UniProtKB/TrEMBL annotation:
<dbReference type="GO" id="GO:0006446">
    <property type="term" value="P:regulation of translational initiation"/>
</dbReference>
<dbReference type="InterPro" id="IPR051245">
    <property type="entry name" value="eIF5-mimic_regulator"/>
</dbReference>
<keyword id="KW-0804">Transcription</keyword>
<keyword id="KW-0805">Transcription regulation</keyword>
<feature type="domain" description="W2">
    <location>
        <begin position="163"/>
        <end position="330"/>
    </location>
</feature>
<protein>
    <submittedName>
        <fullName>EIF5-mimic protein 2 isoform X2</fullName>
    </submittedName>
</protein>
<comment type="similarity">
    <text>Belongs to the BZW family.</text>
</comment>
<dbReference type="GO" id="GO:0005737">
    <property type="term" value="C:cytoplasm"/>
</dbReference>
<keyword id="KW-0010">Activator</keyword>
<dbReference type="InterPro" id="IPR003307">
    <property type="entry name" value="W2_domain"/>
</dbReference>
<dbReference type="Pfam" id="PF25504">
    <property type="entry name" value="HEAT_5MP1_2"/>
</dbReference>
<dbReference type="InterPro" id="IPR043510">
    <property type="entry name" value="W2_5MP1/2"/>
</dbReference>
<dbReference type="Pfam" id="PF02020">
    <property type="entry name" value="W2"/>
</dbReference>
<keyword id="KW-0810">Translation regulation</keyword>
<dbReference type="GO" id="GO:0016020">
    <property type="term" value="C:membrane"/>
</dbReference>
<dbReference type="InterPro" id="IPR057397">
    <property type="entry name" value="HEAT_5MP1_2"/>
</dbReference>
<dbReference type="InterPro" id="IPR016024">
    <property type="entry name" value="ARM-type_fold"/>
</dbReference>
Length: 335
């Protein structure tokens, strides 16, 4: 460590470096040092972590310059995002120093790269879900984070955190849903729980039906024989139809479910011949209605197994169309 300090000191003296140098000059010097003495990299990160713990010892203008420098060094890879751990120091958080420092740091970082690159770096060190810890516990909410950073000019960071929270909420919903199903909880209790989570986390119904479908399909050990799995699937899904129906009250939700069924049957080859049977079951159970099925058949399906599934559905779709025409004729005669 003494050798490292001597090397840094010597280089600083050589360049007559002062704290009032522009950020670009600091970046240049540190980059040259790290490239020349590769073994300094780890020691440099450790020293930066320690430095960030003592932010209160700097003036506001000094903290701003340090934040901008740190952002640039994060962007060019000289520093690892794990240094942000220092900003979660209780005293720094409590006095608002961490959040204010983070504003300047992220502005600098995003200006050099973009939010996707920043997100990737945060994810790499498992820091992507911890940004709200920049605030005291009583202010650790998406709403507060979004307001604070959006007003500071970092809307893209606010949106990123909001998306991360939504993803986390969806994963937690699926996990809890699977546990409730495994316990055999009554459907009315499961539906109540899911609707509360939808409201609390602002999760739209088309997203929820995808989660419910995945959860339903993961609660059983499927037969590996194609001739038996269809019968097993129909029996299983008939049982869960009331639960699925609770979250297909919108046309888009029904269409989403159809696409999920199509993808599942394609990805799990033993289900290839079961697609039409599942759709018909859901139609009879009032999980799916006529219009979304016809729309899926006409132009809303995806490429996966398209020719096989469209052929399976051909007769049923013709029956639906004829039934629709008969209903229209009867309505006209009634008028």
């Amino acid at each position: 460590m003494l050798l490292e300090q001597n090397l840094i000191t010597a280089d600083m003296q050589k360049h007559s470096l002062t704290f009032w140098w522009p950020v670009e000059c600091w970046v240049s010097v540190f980059n040259k040092l790290i490239r020349r003495y590769k073994y300094l990299e780890k020691g440099f990160e450790d020293e930066v972590k320690k430095l960030l713990l003592f932010l209160k010892g700097f003036s506001e203008s000094e903290r701003n310059k340090l934040a901008m420098l740190t952002g640039v060094l994060l962007a060019n890879g000289t520093l690892n995002a794990s240094i942000l751990n220092s900003l979660y120091n209780e005293n720094l958080v409590k006095e608002g120093v961490s959040a204010a420092f983070a504003v300047k740091l992220f502005k600098s970082w995003i200006n050099e790269k973009d939010i996707n690159a920043v997100a990737a770096s945060l994810r790499k060190v498992s820091m992507d879900n911890r940004l709200m810890e920049l605030f005291p516990a009583n202010k650790q909410s998406v709403e507060h984070f979004t307001k604070y950073f959006t007003e500071a000019g970092l809307k893209e960071l606010s949106e990123y955190v909001r998306n991360q929270q939504t993803i986390g909420a969806r994963k937690e919903l699926q996990k809890e849903l699977q546990e409730q199903m495994s316990r055999g909880d009554p459907f009315k209790d499961i539906i109540l729980y899911v609707k509360e989570e939808m409201k609390k986390n602002n999760i739209p119904e088309p997203v929820v039906i995808g989660i419910v479908w995945s959860s339903v399909m993961s609660t059983v050990e499927w037969n590996k024989k194609e001739e038996l799995v269809a019968e097993q699937a129909i029996k299983h899904l008939k049982q869960y139809s009331p639960l699925l129906a609770a979250f297909t009250t919108q046309g888009q939700s029904e269409l989403t479910l159809l696409l999920k069924i199509q993808e599942y049957c394609y990805d799990n080859i033993h289900f290839m011949k079961a697609f039409q049977k599942i759709v018909v079951l859901f139609y009879k159970a009032e999980v799916l209605s006529e219009e979304p099925i016809l729309k899926w058949y006409k132009d809303a399906h995806v490429a996966k197994g398209k020719s096989v599934f469209l052929e399976q559905m051909k007769k049923f779709v013709e029956w639906l169309k004829n039934a629709e025409e008969e209903s229209e004729s009867e309505a006209e005669e009634g008028d």
